[in-house]
């Protein structure tokens, strides 16, 4: 009893979540410890959960987490331990690329990057064949209202983060688990289709300079996705371009799919009220 009380007194408060900043824990801390669009490195004891939204969790050998460790859009690594669940949900663009140490590692790094580009090319072709109308609508929203669409994407990601945090707070219940899984699925669907809408618009912009054989919708969208995926693996600038494309794409999908349904629902509600 006494050691437990002493530990509670000596625990540091968890740092406030900051968007885009890494979080490092070097002393015993009271959880939950949350990183938003940044990584979390734990080098001491944490009494509570450790959560990274859009980043990695690194557990140093001295880390001891008395709770769950969750990385949404990242990975969990290191020699530390956790008493609860360890969950990592990385999307297609979160493939780990090891640092290049020598010629062999450099070839492996570029091989992984080319594999990622090829994966996006295949995925773009399949999705454009299955959901062409949604992709075109998203691309048209980006073409006609680029700034508004980007703002909608940023706001939508903010709402999604709030929903995920709420789901994590309720993760002990069945409702929390359902909300968490639904939030991840919806985000990944909007992200992938949104990136395809960005590629569709990029291919449309290149229509005049492409050879005649590559001017069809599928071909030019494939070229756009290729350029987008290659830009995403560039050093330094690549992550910034990829993040901007993700935000714009999510906004395009929300504007193309969600907004029309909300408008229809509002009109139907107004009509029912008038009756």
How do the strands and helices of this protein lay out in sequence?
Elements: H1 2-10, E1 23-25, E2 29-30, E3 33-36, E4 40-42, E5 45-47, E6 50-53, E7 57-59, E8 64-65, E9 69-72, E10 76-78, E11 81-82, E12 86-89, H2 102-130, H3 132-144, H4 146-169, H5 174-205, H6 217-232, H7 237-274
Parallel strand pairs: 1-4, 2-5, 3-6, 4-7, 5-8, 6-9, 7-10, 8-11, 9-12
Helix pairs in contact: 2-6, 3-4, 3-5, 3-7, 4-5, 4-7, 5-6, 5-7, 6-7
How would you concisely characterize the structure shown here?
The chain is of the alpha/beta class and 275 residues long. It has two domains: 2-90; 102-274, no CATH class. Helices cover 59% and strands 13% of the residues.
Explain the overall architecture.
- By secondary structure, the protein is α/β, with parallel strands linked by helices.
- The chain has helices at 2-10, 102-130, 132-144, 146-169, 174-205, 217-232, 237-274, and strands at residues 23-25, 29-30, 33-36, 40-42, 45-47, 50-53, 57-59, 64-65, 69-72, 76-78, 81-82, 86-89.
- Helix content is 59%, strand content 13%.
- It is built from 7 helices and 12 strands.
- 33% of the residues are buried.
- The strands form 3 sheets. It has a 4-stranded parallel sheet, with no helix packed on it.
- It has 2 domains: 2-90; 102-274, no CATH class.
- The chain is elongated and about 70 Å long.
- The protein starts with a helix and ends with a helix.
- α2 packs antiparallel against α6 (217-232), α3 crosses α7 and α6 (217-232) packs across α7 (237-274).
């Amino acid at each position: 009893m006494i050691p437990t009380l002493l530990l509670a007194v000596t625990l540091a408060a968890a740092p406030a979540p900051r968007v885009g900043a890494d979080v490092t824990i070097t002393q015993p801390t009271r959880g939950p410890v949350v990183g938003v669009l940044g990584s979390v490195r734990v080098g001491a004891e944490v009494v509570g959960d450790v959560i990274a939204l859009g980043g990695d969790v690194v557990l140093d050998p001295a880390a001891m987490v008395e709770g769950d460790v969750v990385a949404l859009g990242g990975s969990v690594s290191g020699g530390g331990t956790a008493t609860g669940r360890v969950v990592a949900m990385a999307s297609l663009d979160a493939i780990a690329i090891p640092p290049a140490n020598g010629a062999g590692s450099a070839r492996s790094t570029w091989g992984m990057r080319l594999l990622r580009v090829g994966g996006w090319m295949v995925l773009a072709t399949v999705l454009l064949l299955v959901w062409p109308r949604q992709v075109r609508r998203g691309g048209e929203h980006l073409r006609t209202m680029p700034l508004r669409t980007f703002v909608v994407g940023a706001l939508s990601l903010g709402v999604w983060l709030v929903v995920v945090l709420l789901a994590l707070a309720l993760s002990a219940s069945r409702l929390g688990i359902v909300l968490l899984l639904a939030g991840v699925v919806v985000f990944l669907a909007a992200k992938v289709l949104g990136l395809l809408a960005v590629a569709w618009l990029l291919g449309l912009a290149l229509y005049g300079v492409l050879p005649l054989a590559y001017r069809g919708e599928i071909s030019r969208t494939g070229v756009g996705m290729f350029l987008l995926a290659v830009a995403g693996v560039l050093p330094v600038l690549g992550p910034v371009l990829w993040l901007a494309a993700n935000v714009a794409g999510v906004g395009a999908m929300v504007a193309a799919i969600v907004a029309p349904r909300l408008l229809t629902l509002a009109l139907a509600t107004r009509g029912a009220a008038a009756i």
